[in-house]
Amino acid sequence: MKSTITYDRHEEAWKAAITDCDEAILANTWLRCDTLDNWRHNRLRKFILPLLSDDINASWLTVGDGRYGSDAHFLMSEGINNVHASDYSDILLQLGSQSGFINEYSAQNAEDLNFPDDSFDYVLCKDALHHFPRPFIALDEMFRVARKGVVLIEPRDRFIDRAWFQSICWKVMGVFSVKASEHGFETVGNYVYSISERELEKFMLGMHFTDIFFAGANDAYFSGVEFVSYPPKTIKDSFARVYLVAKIKVLNLLQNFAFSRSRTLIACILKSTPSHELVSSMKKHGWSYKNLPKNPYI
């Protein structure tokens, strides 16, 4: 018998998006494609463009896509016709479908997906895995229903995937009894389960799969970015964009000098070896490819 796992207050948050006036104003921006916030998210989503061009007829499932199905909408806007959006709650997905923002959708528990094996070519999970109570059970479910592979766009665990300078800083802080916070929680109640490259490699090797892509990206945020027009319509919008881009460039600079790792880890875990053409295309878009060692005993 499976244990019952609650998803904290996520469904309440989606209900507030249509019942609370202030929350509804913010939530309505998720349907817009002309905001600086949408630009932020698309910067990360565009890493999967090589996968889309490699198989434009592939079917996709999005998991944890509760903001009206914005990830599914991105896939559709890039020419993918067979897209199914899902989230633990379908409150906003219903509205997204009714408005034509998305097509197919369903309410799904990521830890117990209601689909047969290999139901979709790819599964996309963006900024959702870190919300789940048992994320690796959810990842196993996503991998089960994917015929080709799973794409994750998630916060990087900076305590595992860390740069040499970070290690030195934390050791110095330890000398002075100052300890960096190793854990985080979000206002809806969930623990922030960040991921690392090595954890994903072990996940694959445990099931005897060996092909994985990694990429990294930095993102920045400030309050009110959801209401900034992009492309800018006013001088204020232009200054907001410059401010946001400057914050991202500072993070990129720190990463380039090995002072830190990218804040976002992007991974594509595959069930079979990709073609040379796909590997080449992925590398041109900032990915690195790893062919993990095969188990010599099977």
Condensed summary:
The chain is α/β, with parallel strands linked by helices and 298 residues long. The protein contains eleven helices and eight strands.
- In DSSP terms, counting alpha (H) and pi (I) runs of 4 or more, how many helices? 11
The CATH superfamily appears as Vaccinia Virus protein VP39
| CATH C-level | Alpha Beta
β content, as a range?
15-25%
Oligomer type: single chain
Q: How many E strands? A: 8
**What is Rg?**
20 Å
What is the count of distinct domains? 1
Mean pLDDT: 93
At the fold tier of CATH, the topology name is Rossmann fold
Return residue spans where pLDDT drops below 50 for at least 5 consecutive residues. Answer: none
Topology:
Elements: H1 10-19, H2 21-28, H3 36-45, H4 49-54, E1 60-63, H5 70-77, E2 83-87, H6 91-98, E3 104-107, E4 120-126, H7 135-145, E5 146-155, H8 164-175, H9 197-206, E6 211-217, H10 235-256, E7 264-270, H11 276-284, E8 288-291
Parallel strand pairs: 1-2, 1-4, 2-3, 4-5
Antiparallel strand pairs: 5-7, 6-7, 6-8
